[in-house]
Amino acid sequence: MSAVFSANLAKQLLEFTPKVIGFPLAKVPFSLKAKVISQLLRVLLAPQTHLDELNFLEDKWVAICVEDLQLAFEVSFDGQWQVRPLTDAQVTFSANSAELILVAAAKEDPDSLFFQRKLSIQGDTELGLEVKNLLLSIEFATMPAPIRLSVAKLAAAIERLQIEAKPTSILAKLASF
User: Where is the SCP2 domain positioned along the sequence (predicted)?
Assistant: First the structure.
């Protein structure tokens, strides 16, 4: 019975933690969120910026929707990062926070998530593929240490919870013997 309890607790943590985080996040003014997002993009994509690999984003807007956090915004790049509320993006990426963290930590492949319907890409397919390839070009090992360590710890916790959330199927198999 403890395995069932543990599995249920893990499922609840995976489901309710984003809601708990999303509530105060919703109270933060968009201007502050936009500033943090643009600074984060500037740091994470600095090598691509210096190599002029972001030109394809000029005059294009990419929407990011973190569904379980109720966080949605659009980004563009014209020599500097621009962030705005959702209006009229050419392509939209939507997923829950756990999947996005696993992708950022290089623990999950965006294509796999797409085919499992855990990542949605809508709009301009060509732009979406360019953005996906850009994100895949970010070397996890070269991220600044505070970001890399935080993402790695979150990804490890998510993976443990996902494993813990599955013992009910193992118990069902054992019960059938």
Answer: 43-135
